[in-house]
Write a structure and sequence with these properties.
Elements (H helix, E strand, L loop, with lengths): L9 H4 L4 E3 L9 E5 L1 H6 L4 H4 L2 H8 L10 E3 L3 E3 L2 E3 L7 E8 L5 E7 L14 E2 H16 L6 E13 L3 E11 L5 H10 L5 H12 L9 H23 L1 E2 L21 E2 L23 H15 L1 H4 L3 H12 L1 H17 L9 H15 L3 H8 L9 H7 L1 H4 L3 H16 L5 H9 L9 H12 L4 H10 L30
Antiparallel strand pairs: 1-3, 2-9, 4-5, 6-7, 7-10, 8-10, 9-10, 11-12
The structure holds adenosine monophosphate and magnesium ion.
């Protein structure tokens, strides 16, 4: 094997931020899928990734030479309640390297065995949730949404008890850093405020070098994270992604989508859709995600108050304007997304009403969120006949045809007002509105087959989702809405 050399960064912070914990071997581990593209980006050559030794590394059965696997400690607000200690209960960092582009990257095995932060749980992850995390990480990457990546998926016959007996799996995930809002909350609420600065400076030095050395670096980093979070929420909304468990321990200090659990993509558009069966109050419903992104940002700022001023008053005075950046950053990012999704070149006064009426149409018809935008790209600015609209597919999605027929002339007029060219606009819209997203029923089909011993559907889905904006005629069925019997798949926190 020819592995890139270790360049420890987080590990050098040492205890008590993280502890060396060996991975626990996984019996009869089998590599179910490997992300060749990411492997190449990480500088892993074809000769290496094809070896049994590399598969053993991805299973946690052997250590990465020169690195002691580590678990880090964090806290977090879970469904609004503060939990003083969480931490990597089943994820272990197994390497820190520099990728082919010179970017630092950390590799983590999720499901690699218990740690001191497992809180009586088994340290394992099941195949079902591992397939979902593996596929969705890369689907989000292909959608252009900041996310942790997934390098390898390993399965094993080892039984794991959840609601039923399932089998164990490991995902090797990759990110420049896995630091979460909760890493900062841990030290703040413990009252060990002197631990905050080394952690923040580690993050800034490695991942925000443009702020390093500046006396105001903590405020600048926090401003950046708050704005990244706001933009991330707009990106989630735009593709109908529902995270499911937006606890502060599942929010990345780099503004990445992290911890794919009971996530979902909207099928029939319901703004109040709750993707996580466990979230009975709907705290993390689709239409509440932007608000929760703000709430979580204020929790991060609170935890970092000791970095922002010598006195509590001074710190709050510095933190408040940073928190206040969120609404504007979100609104600007969301407006940009809706504008592009509608195929408009620029935002103009009055566009909000156009967007809101369109979203209202989708909601009242429970139209398929993904398909409807693709149909809209085929609307002609010249031909307003019902046949043209039917040809675009919209008359099948929207039940309230009178409302559709009232909205379309305004949309066409708005397009004509900027001399929109139908062909060119369709190309732009199709590069913004995905055709293929990881719908629950697609993931479920891959899971059912893999549980029966056939992992091939994972590979097929991986291939389709790698090009979400392209027409892929041989995979047309993957763009369909769920069949009636699959409309109410329930996904819970169990993983
Ligand atoms: P999650 O709901 O996956 O974001 O996890 C919340 C916390 O529970 C984190 O500290 C996880 O590491 C921990 N956790 C979840 N599942 C397990 C498990 N099977 N074994 C050990 N720790 C777990
Ligand atoms: Mg988590």
């Amino acid at each position: 094997m020819n592995l890139p050399p270790i360049t420890p960064r987080f590990a050098t912070l040492g205890e008590p931020y993280s502890l060396p914990i060996p991975t626990r071997p996984l019996p009869s581990a089998q590599l179910l899928h490997l992300n060749d593209g990411l492997a190449a980006q990480l500088g892993l050559d074809a000769g290496t990734i094809g070896t049994p030794e590399f598969a053993a590394l991805m299973a946690g059965n052997t250590p990465w030479p020169g690195y002691d696997a580590r678990a880090s400690v964090y806290a977090g607000h879970q469904f609004g309640q503060f939990v003083p200690q969480l931490g990597d209960g089943r994820a272990l960092s197994i390497a820190e390297i520099v990728d082919a582009a010179g970017q630092p990257q950390e590799l983590q095995l999720k499901g690699a065995g218990p740690t001191p932060y497992s809180r009586h749980a088994d340290g394992r992850a099941v195949l079902r949730s591992s397939i979902r995390e593996y596929l969705c990480s890369e689907a989000m990457q292909a959608l252009g949404i900041p996310t942790t990546r997934a390098l390898a998926l390993v399965g094993s016959p080892q039984p794991v008890r959840r609601e039923t007996m399932e089998t164990a799996a490991v995902v090797c995930r990759v990110a420049p850093s896995f630091l979460r809002f909760g890493h900062f909350e841990f030290w703040y609420y413990r009252g060990e405020h002197q631990r905050l600065q080394p952690l923040a400076d580690h993050l800034i030095d490695r991942h925000f070098p443009e702020f390093a050395g500046d006396p105001d670096r903590h405020a600048r980093w926090l401003t950046d994270v708050v704005e990244r979070t706001a933009r991330l929420m707009a990106q989630w909304q735009a593709v109908g992604f529902c995270h499911g468990v937006m606890n502060t321990d599942n929010f990345s200090a780099l503004g990445l989508t992290i911890d794919y659990g009971p996530f979902g993509f909207l099928d029939a558009f319901d703004p109040q859709h709750i993707c996580n069966h466990t979230d009975q109050g709907g705290r993390y419903a689709w239409d509440r995600q932007p608000l929760i992104g703000h709430w979580n940002s204020t929790k991060l700022l609170q935890a970092c108050l000791p970095l922002l001023g010598a006195t509590p008053e001074a710190a709050v005075a510095r933190a408040q304007p940073i928190a206040d950046r969120y609404p504007d950053a979100y609104a600007a990012a969301m407006t940009a997304r809706w504008t592009a999704k509608l195929g408009l070149r620029e935002h103009r006064d009055g566009d909000e009403a156009l967007i809101n009426r369109w979203l209202g149409l989708l909601a009242s018809s429970k139209a398929d969120f993904t398909r409807s935008w693709r149909h809209l790209a085929r609307i002609s600015t010249r031909d307003d006949s019902p046949e043209a609209v039917a040809g675009a597919g919209l008359r099948e999605e929207i039940l309230d045809l009178a409302a559709l027929d009232a909205w379309l002339p305004d949309y066409r007029a708005r397009l004509r007002g900027e001399q929109s060219d139908d062909t060119e606009r369709a190309v732009r819209m199709n590069a913004e509105n995905p055709k293929y997203v990881l719908r629950n029923h697609l993931a479920q089909a891959a899971i059912a087959r893999a549980e029966a011993g056939d992992a091939s559907e994972i590979g097929r889905l991986f291939t389709v989702l790698a090009r979400p904006f392209d027409e892929q005629p041989s995979f047309g069925a993957y763009a369909a809405e769920p069949p009636p019997e699959a409309r109410h798949i329930e996904v819970s926190c169990s993983s």
